[in-house]
């Protein structure tokens, strides 16, 4: 009988999830490792490079650790459920002129549900991942708090987790820095792993070319959307583009046009296959509407709150006023914010704690 019970650890083969498993094993948990295959690289039609959580090398790395540490390891195939939900949403969002965040969607709707189902089947009390974040609680209420290592903090991508998911989850790396994690891997005899680089790519876009992925996924797309107009705010036509799904808010490079000053994508209008360009100040917004909000810290938050809002992973955040208004939540920035992109996540913080988060519907 283990000291702390049986725990299922999501192991991608990377250093963070590996150290998570080793830490829990050393603490006396009965660790069961699990690696989820979410995507088949051969089916992407892109480059032959395999990085991230789905590659054969990563799966083998995870299994090697489990064998060395002496605990069970399983590989589960969730490609069908992942593809039906995450990839279809990814494509649909670009076709709607929005910019999706598939990692948030996967965490919220696929990975955690898949982990909890397997945890129950394998008689595990809880699950653990290698995310840099913390789970805190007050009575029966749980929420996500930023990690100690703010350079690695991943709280932003976890805003969608339910109370049930957080109740059964652990993030052992929340109080560690990345250098400390690398040192731990080295001290445990995994010298090569301790030097392993990290992948920041979307798992099903291993070459980091989402435009190529869309074209391979929908061969007819390029022909149907090419030749639309670039326009400015006044409606003046500036040139022709390759198709509105192939552009994102804030994009400057790859426009194929030369101007006397840097020009950026400030709006995408799918109904007319039009992309609006403007100088950098055209990206500034005073607020936005957010939907599908998951409230974390408070069961019934006040209708009006002062929060710090992040609109992207590396965004330092902006002091904002949050106001609930039916199904949508209005955010008024206290300083103009650049590059608000519908489809991306907005996450609301009080100090280090997530109050809630949702999907950006529109900018103001």
Keywords:
five-stranded parallel sheet; six-stranded antiparallel beta barrel; 364 residues; Rossmann fold; alpha/beta; 30% strand
Structural overview:
With 364 residues, the protein is of the alpha/beta class. The chain has three domains: 6-130 and 172-194, Rossmann fold (3-Layer(aba) Sandwich), CATH 3.40.50; 224-278, SH3 type barrels; 283-363, Translation factors (Elongation Factor Tu (Ef-tu), domain 3, Beta Barrel), CATH 2.40.30. Helix content is 26%, strand content 30%. The protein has nine helices and 17 strands. It has helices at residues 15-27, 56-69, 79-95, 102-121, 163-167, 178-187, 191-194, 210-217, 221-225; strands at residues 6-10, 30-37, 72-77, 126-128, 133-138, 141-146, 169-170, 229-231, 237-240, 264-269, 274-278, 284-295, 304-310, 318-325, 328-338, 345-350, 353-363. The strands form four sheets. It has a six-stranded antiparallel beta barrel. Helix 1 (15-27) packs parallel to helix 2 and helix 1 (15-27) crosses helix 6. 42% of the residues are buried. The model is unreliable at 46-51 (pLDDT under 50).
